[in-house]
Structure formats: C-alpha cells, structure tokens
Amino acid sequence: MRRPAESTKSSKPGRKPQRVGAPSSLTVGFVLVPDFPLMSYTAAVEPLRAANTLSGCPLYRWWHAAPGGGTVQASNGVTILTDVEIGALELDADRVFVCAGGNPATFDDPAVSAWLRNLARKGVTVGGISGGPYLLARAGLLTGRRCTLHWEHVPAFEERYPDLEVVRSLFEMQGNRITCSGGIAALDLMLNLIEQDHGPGLAAGVSDWFLHNQIREGLSPQKMDLRLRFGIRDPRVLRVLAAMEANLETPLSKEDLAGLARVSVRQLERLFRDLLGVGLHRSYLDLRLDRAHQLRRESSMSAAEIAAATGFANADELSRAERRRRLRASASG
Q1: H-type helices in 131-279, by residue range?
Q2: What is the pLDDT of residues 55-109, one digit of tens each?
Q3: What is the pLDDT of residues 211-245, one digit of tens each?
Q4: What is the pLDDT of residues 280-302, one digit of tens each?
Q5: Which of 44, 87, 95, 276 is deepest in the core (most CB within 10 A)?
Q6: Is the separation of the CB atoms in 244 and 283 below 8 Å?
Q7: How far apart are CA 48 and CA 187, in angstroms?
Q8: What is the pLDDT of residue 296?
C-alpha cells in the first residue's frame, strides 16, 4: 500500500503531531471509479481542505483508491494518483465515498464490492456520490434504506433495483449510509457533515469561502423548477408537463391531460403551441424519446426493455420514432 499523501497524515507514531488540544481528525476515503465526475469529487474534497485551513487544525484527512490502483482518470481527462489499494484492511477510515459517473450500471468489480462490505462491517460510514450509489446497491449496502443519486442515473437505477426506495433529493443520510446526487450537491452534503462534526459556525465559514451563500438541505430538489426549465409560467401547462414527466412508461391520454389542466383538448393544444412552439403529442413524445436516449446511455437494458419503459409497444416502434425525430432535426437544421 502506498503511503498516504501529506494531506492524510495524523498524529500517529512517526507522523507529524497535531497541535496540543486540537480536535481529533476524521479520515475520509474517496474510491474513484474511472471516468468519475471531477466536479462531484472536487465539491466533496475541497470543503474538507477549507475546514482545515479556516480552523487552523487538521480536522480532516483523506485518501484515494481506485480499481487497479495507480492513477485514475476523471471524465474530463484529469488524473488523480491513488494512495490506498482496493482491499486494504489496515487503514484509517471514518467515512468512505464512492464517486462514479459515466455508466455505472456497467461497472462490476467483485473486489470493490467485497471491500465496501468489509468496511461497512467494521463500522465505517459508506457513501456514494453521483453514480456511486450504484456500486453500493450492487454490494448490497442500500437494502432497506432510502437513497438518492444523480437524476440522470435514476431511471436505469430504478429499473435495476426496483425494491430500493429512491428519492430525487440532493443527498440522503441514513445512519451509516450516505448517498449524494453529485455535482454541487456534494458541497452541500459536506457542509452539512462539517456542521454535524464541528458546528454551524465552521460550516458557514466554509460555505462563505466558496461563495456559496445558502447551505441547502438534503431534501432540496435536484432539478430546476419546471417554470425555469421551460421558461413558462402558465400553471395549467406546468401541471401537464409534470404529469407527462411522471408518466412516461404508461402515457396519459390527451383527455386526461386536458382534465388536469381543466381546459378542453383543443385549448390545451393551443396553449402548448403558443408557449412551447410544439403540440401536445410532440411534447410528450420528445420527453419519452429523451428518456429512451438516457436509458440507452446509462443502463445495460435491452432495446425491448427501454421501449417498454418509455411507453412504446416494442423496440421497432421506438426505433421508428427516433428515426423520425432525427429526420425532423435534419430538415430544420
């Protein structure tokens, strides 16, 4: 096992001593899966560094591990040098976070799963960031616990693990399991943990350090409000869009959607064309095709399974719909 980097050193024999009276350090491990999202990792590790700097004490230490050891590359090509080997038994760890991106559904390393289970048995808090909860679920570490992960991974995750309770929150802390949706939500997670460890004053100081003027709670939503995403304010159309997004596998009829908006089908069609530039059917179809594209990218589901999950009769019908959309895009371009 490589010797941890300077940032991970503690007051153990042969290492640089802590200042007298300083709080004991907490050790945080990061298991980085190839193509991990650098934003999520940075948002998780930098608050720890800032907490050390602002407090003047080594409150946190951290180490890195990756399948295969050596260096591990983020999705943007940046590489991180690991300093702990997967499977190491004698190591400091209070919390260990798995950070994964890309298509975590295809990552299957029994050694990683066994190591995570062993760490959990030893009482280590085990967490997943962005696509990291996929690895926790594969290792059987999320059974009976509420969890979250990046919204892009949720549809495939729910298809793969239908018995797990998935919520679309920023992060979830369930005892000694922590899951986080990734991105900037990792910063909010770490700020909440710093507050839990060392009080609200330090957490607020770290938040200010990063020009983050509001520490969000875990249950805050991941995605932007529909009004902002679509640039519309009409409550009737917003109700219909929300219902469409919630019913992609079994699409609602035009009559049902019009009933939600409390208008006639003709009025609803006119509202969609006026506010979104496309009709009701096209809007719904585009949402379903977007989900199909997402499942194809983020899961190992078959074409038939993806078609069923997005409201198409079979894979051929889905393929024809995708082909027609490509043709429309080419014609308009």
Answers
A1: 132-138, 154-160, 185-198, 200-209, 226-230, 235-246, 254-261, 265-276
A2: 999 999 999 999 999 999 999 999 999 999 999 878 899 999 999 998 898 899 9
A3: 988 887 876 666 666 776 777 889 999 899 989 98
A4: 999 999 999 988 887 887 777 88
A5: 44
A6: yes
A7: 10
A8: 83
State mean pLDDT over 300-317.
91
Please check whether residue 249 is in contact with residue 309, taking contact to mean a CB–CB distance below 8 angstroms. Answer: yes
Phi, psi of 180 (to 5 degrees): -140, 140
Domain spans in the chain, listed from the N-terminal domain onward: 6-209, 226-325
What are the beta bridge partners of residue 55? none
At 72 the three-state DSSP class reads strand
Taking a C-beta distance cutoff of 8 angstroms, is the pair 92, 25 a contact? Answer: no
In the sheet that 60-65 helps form, which strands lie side by side, from edge to edge? 60-65, 26-32, 95-100, 125-130, 177-180, 171-174
- The span from the CA of 119 to the CA of 84, in Å, is 14
| In contact, 112 and 136? CB cutoff 8 Å | no
Is the domain spanning 6-209 CATH 3.40.50.2300? The answer is no
CATH T-level topology, domain 226-325 = Arc Repressor Mutant, subunit A (1.10.10)
Contact call for residues 127 and 96 (beta carbons, < 8 A):
yes
**Where are the alpha helices (H) located in 56-184, listed in sequence order?**
110-121, 132-138, 154-160
Instruction: State the Cα–Cα distance between residues 295 and 158, nearest whole angstrom.
Output: 11
User: What are 122's strand-pairing partners?
Assistant: none
Tokens 């078609």 — which residue?
307
